């Protein structure tokens, strides 16, 4: 390390200033706020449509899809550049979560059995499904 330059989060091993990692996370945070706003807007539009038409299908599908998109976005923090398939993660975590997320809107439209906890669990299982989808291929 050259004299006069310290080594911390802003400098690499050779002492050069490295801000690309900081900029990457700053851009991720800005993107997160934009994505949260867009997701909130989509849910609001679906609720307005459901109120106007008394058909809640679009609202339930929106409530199922938006958390999956959030999970995919969060997974960008943890994904590695080299692809590789993690089959147990895909089969044992992603598939059950995404099937659950699809079951709730389908059961709403087909008037199948639906428990109250299922609609509340949509946000958690959606985020987990989106997160594990990317991590099962780039984790």
Protein model, in words:
This protein is mainly α and 139 residues long. It has one domain (20-138). It is 72% helix and 0% strand. The protein contains 4 helices and no strands. It has helices spanning 20-53, 57-75, 87-110, 116-138. The two termini are 33 Å apart.
Q: What's this, in brief?
A:
The chain has 139 residues and is mainly α. The protein has one domain (20-138). It has helices at residues 20-53, 57-75, 87-110, 116-138.
What's the SSE pattern? Answer: HHHH
Helix content: over 70%
Tally of discrete structural domains:
1
Overall 3D form: flat
Q: What is the average per-residue confidence, as pLDDT, rounded to a whole number?
A: 87
The protein's oligomeric status is single chain
Low-confidence stretches: none
Tell me the strand percentage band. under 5%
Straight-line distance between termini = 33 Å
What characteristics describe this protein?
single chain; 139 residues; mainly alpha; 0% strand; flat
Helix/strand layout:
Layout: H1 20-53, H2 57-75, H3 87-110, H4 116-138
């Amino acid at each position: 390390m050259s004299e006069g330059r310290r080594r911390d989060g802003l400098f690499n091993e050779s002492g050069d200033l490295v801000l690309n990692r900081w900029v990457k996370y700053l851009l991720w945070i800005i993107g997160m706020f934009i994505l949260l706003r867009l997701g909130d807007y989509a849910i609001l539009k679906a609720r307005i449509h459901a109120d106007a038409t008394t058909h809640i299908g679009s609202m339930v599908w929106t409530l199922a899809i938006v958390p999956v998109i959030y999970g995919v976005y969060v997974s960008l923090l943890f994904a590695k550049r080299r692809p590789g398939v993690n089959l147990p993660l895909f089969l044992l975590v992603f598939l059950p979560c995404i099937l659950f997320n699809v079951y709730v809107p389908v059961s709403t439209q087909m008037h199948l059995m639906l428990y109250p906890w299922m609609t509340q669990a949509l946000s958690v299982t959606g985020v987990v499904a989106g997160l594990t989808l990317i991590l099962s291929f780039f984790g």
